[in-house]
From TrEMBL, chain A:
Entries under Pfam families matching the protein: Ribosomal_L16
Keyword Metal-binding annotated: no
Protein known as: Large ribosomal subunit protein uL16m
One MF annotation (Gene Ontology) recorded for this entry: structural constituent of ribosome
UniProt-listed GO biological process terms: mitochondrial translation
Family: Belongs to the universal ribosomal protein uL16 family.
Gene Ontology cellular component terms for the protein in this record: mitochondrial large ribosomal subunit
Entry keyword annotation includes Ribosomal protein: yes
Keywords: Ribonucleoprotein, Ribosomal protein
Domain of life: Eukaryota
Classification via SUPFAM superfamilies: Ribosomal protein L16p/L10e (SSF54686)
Classification via Gene3D superfamilies: Ribosomal protein L10e/L16
PANTHER family: 50S/60S RIBOSOMAL PROTEIN L16 (PTHR12220), LARGE RIBOSOMAL SUBUNIT PROTEIN UL16M (PTHR12220:SF13)
UniProtKB/TrEMBL annotation, chain B:
Gene behind the chain: LOC106175176
One GO CC term, this protein: ribosome
Taxonomic placement: Eukaryota, Metazoa, Spiralia, Lophotrochozoa, Brachiopoda
Protein family (similarity comment): Belongs to the universal ribosomal protein uL10 family.
InterPro entries documented for this protein: Ribosomal_uL10 (IPR001790), Ribosomal_uL10-like_sf (IPR043141), Ribosomal_uL10_bac_type (IPR047865)
Species of origin: Lingula anatina (Brachiopod)
Domain of life of the organism encoding this protein: Eukaryota
Gene3D superfamilies reported in the protein's UniProt record: 3.30.70.1730
A Pfam family matched in the record: Ribosomal_L10
Keyword line: Ribonucleoprotein, Ribosomal protein
Keyword check for Ribonucleoprotein: yes
Protein name, as recorded: Large ribosomal subunit protein uL10m
Amino acid sequence: MSSVILRQSLLRSNKTVLMPCTVLPMATFRKKPKFNPKPPQDYSWVKMPERGKLKLYERIPQPNKMQVRIWGEGRIKETSRSIDTRGPELFHNNLNHKQFGIRALQGGELKWGHFEMMRININKIINEDNMFAVWRVPAPNKPVTNKTEGARMGGGKGPIKYYVTPVKAGRIILEVGGHCEYKEVSRVLELMAANLPFKAEAITHEMLLEEQERKEFIEKNNKNPFDFRFMLKHNINGCRRYAGRYDWKWQGKYK
Amino acid sequence: MATAVGLRVSVRGWLETTRPVSLIVRHKAKMNVKTRKHRPMVIRALQAITEPLILEDLQKPICPKTKWARIRENEEEEVNLYQDFLVRKCKKHLENAGLILICQKLPMGMRDTKKIKLQLEAQGFKMPVISNTVMKRAIHDTRWIHLSPLLLNHNFYATSEDARLKELLGLIRKFPQLIPLAAVVDNTILNRADLLHYATLDLEVERTQLVTLLKMPGERIVQLLNNHPKELTCNIEQYIKQKGDENTSS
C-alpha cells in the first residue's frame, strides 16, 4: 500500500491516529542545509574610481610624437624579447583595490582578442552604480612579426602581424571590486581565466594573504635540509648539464 | 656540456666540489618559452626532492576517511544569527502569550493550513510557525523545559493573549489532522487529559462559586460577632415595649 493511499484513508476516517514513521516519504529524511545568511557587509572603505567599466584597448597602438620624429610614420619592428615573459613578476603582483582579480600563473602574451573577450564579458556583469573593473596591464604595444606561409629564408624581417602585451608569472591582469561579494563575480572571473592563453586563476585579497602566511610558515618549519641551490652548487646527479643561469637565479621554479 | 673550473674528482668517484669561478652553459637550441615542454628528468627529480617538508602535513593519515568521518570532522557549530533572531522571537511569544496550544500536525494540504490560519485570525488567535530546533533552544533553561518531549515530529502552535481554550479547541476539532497534545495556560502546563477537562469547565460559574466559598468564613465571623449586640438590642426593645404596656395598663 503506498504512503499516499494510506494517508488519504486515514484522513477520511474521523479517527485520530498517530501516523507511524515508516509511512512518511523518504524525502523528509534528507538533510537540508541550514539557512544561515550572513549580515550585510560594510563597504564604506571601498573607493570607487571614476570609470566603472573596462576601457576599450586599440588593436594597433598609436606612435608617440618622438617616435614619429625619429623613425617616421611607419610602424617599428622589435626583437622578440622572450625575457618579457620569463621569470616572476616583482611589482604588479598585488591587488590595489584589495578585492578580486585575475592573476597569471605562467608567463605569456595577451592579444587584442583576449582583451575584447574579457572586456565584453566583464562589462556585462558590472553595475556602474555599485561595481567597477580596472585593467592592470597596458594595451598591446609589442609588435610580433611573421613571414608569410611558404616563404623562403632571407629577405629581411617579416612584416608586423599583430601586437601583444607580455605578461610574467604572478602578474595581476585585471581587478574587479565595489559593493559586491566574490560569489557574484567568481563565475565570470574563473571563465575568463580559463580562456586565457596561459594558466591563470581568479583570486581575492584574502587568498593572497593566506598564501603569504603559508609561505612564511613553510620558511620557518621546513625540515628539508636540501635546497635546489644546494643541488646545483654540488652538482648532484650532474644537474648542471641541464641547468641554466636562470635556474641559479629562480631556483628552478621558472623556465 | 657544462664545465666548471675548480672541479676535482677522486679515485673512488666521489665528487669533491669547490665554488666555481666561471660557469659556461650551452644549450643545443634556444630555450623555447612559448611551447610548454617538460624539463629534463634530472631537474624534475631534484625539484621533487627539494620540496619543503612540514611535520604536520606528514603526520596526516594516508588512508582516506569514510564519508561520515569527514562530515563529522568538518561539522562545527557555526554562529547562525538568523536562528538566534528566531529564538528571541519565540521567547517573546512564550512570555507574552496567555495561552499556547501544541498539537501534532499530520500531513495536510496548503488549502487546509490557510483555512485554519484565517479562522484563527478571525477569532483573535495567532498561528506561529516554529521549528523544533528553534523551540528547543528557546525553552532551554526556562520553566517550559518540560515541553521538550513533545518536540519530536511536526508540531502546530496556536497562541493568544487571553486564555480562551474552549473556543480554540472548538475551532481545531473541525480539522482531524490536528491532535492536541498539551497547552500552557496562565503559566501552567496542562497535559491532554487536563486540557480537555479545562475546556469543559464553565469559568464564570466556577469563579462565583470560588468567591462565595472564600467569602463564607468571613461572613460567618461577622455574623457571630454581630449576634450578641443584635440579641441585646432586640431584648432591650422588647423589655422597653413590655414596660410601656404595663405602665399604660396600670
